[in-house]
Structures are given as C-alpha cells and as structure tokens.
Amino acid sequence: MKALVYQGPGKKALEDRPIPEVKAPTDAVVKIVKTTICGTDLHILKGDVPTCSPGRILGHEGVGMVEKTGPGVTAFRPGDRVLISCISACGKCEYCRRGMYSHCTTGGWILGNEIDGTQAEYVRIPHADTSLYPIPAGADEEALVMLSDILPTGFECGVLNGRVEPGSTVAIVGGGPIGLAALLTAQFYSPAEIIMIDLDDNRLQMAKRFGATATVNAAGGEAAETVMKMTGGRGVDTAIEAVGVPASFVTCEDIVAPGGTIANVGVHGAKVDLHLERLWSRNITITTRLVDTVTTPMLLKTVQSRKIDPKQLITHRFKLDQILDAYDTFGRAASTHALKVIVEA
Ligand SMILES: [Zn+2]
Ligand SMILES: [Zn+2]
C-alpha cells in the first residue's frame, strides 16, 4: 500500500508498505477513505517530536471502513464506516477511567507518532472499541475528518478549559485550523465578544466569517494594547493560546482580565516567560491539556444537526498519491491560504 513516511528531520516520502495486520485481539485494521495533515505533522517533520522515529507512517486523523477486526473487538465489524480518533484509549486504565484518554497508559497520542498512522491506504487501530466512533448513515464524511483532532482540541483545550460563558469576552491568539475550531465551538456558549488575533489578514477575514466579533492583526506588535482598548482597559475573560510560541503566550498574559483564564492549546517547543510578578494577585487560572477526545460523540451530534459546519475549514483536496503536494500546500499556508487539506485514499 502507499504510505507517507517520516524519514528523519526535514525528510518524508511516499513509500510502498505492507498492509498492516491485526496484532492484538483488540485491534482493527481500517481502510482509509479520507485523511488530512495536521500542524503537528509539520512539528514532527521539523524534528520537534522525539517520540516519532524515522520510518514512521504519519497521520492521526481520518475516516475509513473497518477491514478486519481482532477477536476481542465487539463494537465494530468489517464494513463499518468509522471516525478515527487521534487519541487511542484502552478504556480501562486509571487515566481512561477518569476520562483522561490522552494519558492512557497503553494509548494516548500514539497514532502517527509511536505507531504507524493514517496517511496511508490502511491503518492498524489498537483498542478499536474505544478509539473508533461509528459514522451515522448519511453523514458528510469530509466534515467528520475535522472531528478526529481539531474540533475536540479547540473545544476541550480552548473552550472548556477556558471556561467560556454566556456574555463573556474571549480572545483567540492564532487563527489557524485549531484557533478557528475554538472559534466555532466557543459559540455554543454565546460569549458577547470573540476577538481573533493573527498575523495574516486572510485568516482574520476567515475568522470574521466564522463568527469573530472583532479581529486584530498582531503584525505591528501592538495586539495587546489594541485588545485592552477594545475592552475598555479590562481585558478578556478567556485568552486562548492557539499558536505555541512564547510571544503568543505573553500576549495572553497581557490581555487576561482579573478572574480570567489563559487556556493553552498550542504545542510549545521552547520555554515561555511566566509573568507572575503581574499575575499573582489577579485571580488568573492557566490551563494546559492534551485533547482527550471525550467530547467527540457530542461534537458529532452538533455536526449532524448542523449547529456547526466544520467543513468550512477545508480549503484543498488531494489524492493520496499527491500527498507530497498536499504537504507543500499546507506548509505554505500564508501564500496558499490553506487551512485543512483533505487527502483521499
Ligand atoms: Zn492533529
Ligand atoms: Zn487507558
């Protein structure tokens, strides 16, 4: 089968690989129908993710059809259409029992990281019963690809951890796919204001279409001052960090109002400055989280009932044998205006 393989920092190739087999009784082998590329895949390619070794098939998002199941799989049968979660969960360990699937002792984020992933014609899914979700009949499978990772990530790490409430003021720093997913799902709670901050005017325009009440271009280095002016000097109740660089975290520290929350979503590769000398007395909460995908079934219902339309995030479509072009388009988002690219297997 064809598969996109990480070959070490800066190197990737479309290779021929054997079709994966069921290894454990609880495994399923899924034939990929549609997958996508994530910002995290670019982090791996930069060499930022040491758990991912050369030779690994990348990808942790997608929808497909069950091809084979181990004898321990009871919830799925060959032929079932499934949504693949970016987080694999045994459902039984201490962390899984607490709903913290991201820290499952035999799972978590392993797909396209510690085990071969979804940017291929087939993928082996461990703990299939608790790591796959059935796709309802008639569902738009392209839209559901957005539910493997980015929608639950924006919602759980940004909106839920950020305690977005009716009438509250929210700022999202970073208008990439994750920031936009947070923007879409924040609106479940009817905040009064959602301010999107980014460096790219195209992304800010998208954010307006997705429901941002105001946008701030951070290019001039005065994003924090602008947000403070917009909020009458008060700041925002929720500051969602959706970039993962020191400057964007500092922006969140600069704009959070007393009693507010900084919800970190970004993948940080370097330390950031924690300004406790300013924050210590301001009743601030800072949260971190790796997505648990516990809200996936709920999000699936909101997509089915058209409360949100994650398909808006899809900007480009490719076939699996064009996946190198897909990476190129996704990697040059500033000039290609790419958000999520769909790769059809
Ligand atoms: Zn991802
Ligand atoms: Zn577990």
UniProtKB/TrEMBL annotation:
Cofactor field: Zn(2+)
Matches recorded under InterPro entries: ADH-like_C, ADH-like_N, ADH_Zn_CS, GroES-like_sf, NAD(P)-bd_dom_sf
Zinc is among the record's keywords: yes
All copies of domain Alcohol dehydrogenase-like C-terminal, residue ranges: 177-291
GO molecular function terms attached to this record: oxidoreductase activity; zinc ion binding
UniProt KW keywords: Metal-binding, Oxidoreductase, Zinc
Alcohol dehydrogenase-like N-terminal domain location: 25-136
CDD domains according to UniProt: FDH_like_ADH2 (cd08286)
Keyword Iron attached: no
Short name of one Pfam family: ADH_zinc_N
Protein family: Belongs to the zinc-containing alcohol dehydrogenase family.
Protein name as catalogued: Alcohol dehydrogenase
Upper lineage: Bacteria, Pseudomonadati, Pseudomonadota, Gammaproteobacteria, Immundisolibacterales
